[in-house]
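Anyone able to model this chain together with 1,3-dihydroxyacetonephosphate?
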Amino acid sequence: MPTQIELNPKYIDSPTDRIMEQIASVRKKLGDRVVILGHHYQCDEVVQFADFTGDSFKLARLATERPEAEFIVFCGVHFMAESADILTPDHQKIILPDLGAGCSMADMANIEQTEEAWRALEAVNGSNSYLPITYMNSSADIKAFVGRHGGVVCTSSNAATVYDWALQQDKRVLFLPDQHLGRNVGFEMGIPLADMVLWDPMQIPADNIAHGAADARVVLWKGHCSVHARFLPEHIDSLRLEKPGIQIISHPECSFEVVQKSDFSGSTEKIIKTIEASEPGSTWAVGTEINLVHRLAQMNPDKEVMSLSGISCLCATMYRIDPPHLLWALENLESGTIVNQISVSAETAKWAKVALDRMLSLA
Ligand code: 13P
Ligand code: SF4
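re: yes, here you go
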C-alpha cells in the first residue's frame, strides 16, 4: 500500500481557523463535483464538512447514490474507501485524505492466511462445506475471496440478517476477521458458544484443527478491534454501582462479556438513534470510539452521556483524517491533481462487488 506523503508545512503550521476557512472556500469552489462522506468516528472539525455521515453500511450505500459526483472524498478508513471504489462506477474517483488511515482489525487477516485456513477446513469437511462471511472491516482481496466462494460481506448493522441468510444454507460458516462481532451475533442467532471456535492465523492449520476448528458450526477468525478491546465488563459493574439506572450501549466489536452485560448493542448509527430516542434525563455509558461519545454528549444536552471506560478510546487511524489533510486533498482536486485515489484492481473489484452486492440485496 502506498504511504502518505508529508504535507507541505503551510498545511501543518497554519492556525486551525485559517485551515477551516480554506476548506470551506475550496469546498464551495468544487461544488457538486465532490461529495464528502464522514464516518461517525471522525473528529468534529472534519465531520462539519461532511455532506453525509454514517456507519460503514450507510456510507457504502450513500457512495452508490451519488453517481453525479466526480470525486468522493472519504473521511473514514481505507477499507471503507476501497468498498466505495468497488461499488461505484469507474468515472468516480475515491479519495482518502490520509493514506495512513487504515484499520488494525482489517490488517489481522490477509488473503494468504485466509486461503490457507479455507484449504485446511475443506480438507477435513469437504469442498462446499463452508460459507465465508467477512466483516466490512477487511481488505478488498478478502471480500473478493468471499465473493468467489458464494459468501457475503456484513457490517455491524446487518450482521444478524446476513448470518440468518448464511445459516439457512446448511453450511458451516467461516467468519472473519472480527471474532467478537462473529461471536456476539452468532450467539444472538442461537448458536451456542461451544459451536463457535477460533481460528488463529498465527498458528499452523494443524493446531487450529486440533483445537476443534473443523468441528465447529462457526469458525471465528482471531481478529479484534484494539479500540473496542479496551472496554471491560468491570467498567460496566462499577458504573452500575456508581450510577444506578444508567443504561449501557456497546458496539458489537466489544467482547462477548461486555455485550452481554450491556442493555443494548449495535452499530454506530444504532447507538446514535437509540440515545437520541431515549427519555430526557436518562444516563448513558457508551462502549465505542471517543469522538462519537463526545459528539453524542453534545448532541444530547438533556441527557448524561459518557464513555464506558475512563481510558480515552480513540481510533488513531480514523484520527489521521484531520483538517490539514482534508484541505490538502481538496486543494489538489481543485487544481486538477488527483491525490490519494483508492483504486481496487478490476478482477478483485469484480468478485468483491459480488459479496458487497449480496449484502446490499439482503439488507
Ligand atoms: P460501524 O459500521 O458501526 O460504523 O462500525 C465501523 C467500525 O469500524 C467500528 O469500529
Ligand atoms: Fe478499525 Fe477499530 Fe478503528 Fe473501527 S475502531 S476502524 S475496527 S481500528
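The chain has three domains: 9-102+317-345, 106-226, 228-307.
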